[in-house]
Amino acid sequence: MPALIGPLAQVAVTFHDVPRALAWYRDVLGLPLVFETNGMAFFAMGDVRLMMTAPEKPEYDHPASVLYFKVAQIDEAYAALAARGATLEDTPHLVGKMGSTEIWMCFLRDPERHLIGITEERAGTSS
Q: What's the confidence (pLDDT) of residue 6?
């Protein structure tokens, strides 16, 4: 059966302080700001946009899903995020293997305590 929808285009995350979140995602994570308008900000996350907005209704005021960002070298990314003042939850660690590939992750929090993961896929060691 052919797919009726295409790839993921945008993720919306609600914030109570959009300007503070904008500065953090730009200055700590280093995401490129695409544009901002009417209390919203849009960042490039590869082929997917991140939309920041205040919750429009009480039912939209809840923690976001976890955003996972790919990194080339998790240890270097971890050190850079720590140097930029990120609130880190743990250190890079092996979470699993997919065949000969190891999946490494660690987690941090944005200023409103949304959980963010960074992940590296690397060639596994023979055992």
A: 77
CB atoms within 10 A of CB 57: 6
Whole-prediction pTM: 0.85
- Give the mean model confidence (pLDDT) for residues 74-95: 96
Distance spanning both ends of the chain, measured CA to CA? 40
Rounded-to-integer distance, Cα 103 and Cα 18, Å:
32
User: Which of 86, 91, 94, 121 is closest to 106 using CA atoms?
Assistant: 91
What is the model's pLDDT at position 127?
Answer: 54
- CATH number (3.90.550.10, 3.30.365.10, 3.30.310.50, 3.10.180.10) of 10-123 reads 3.10.180.10
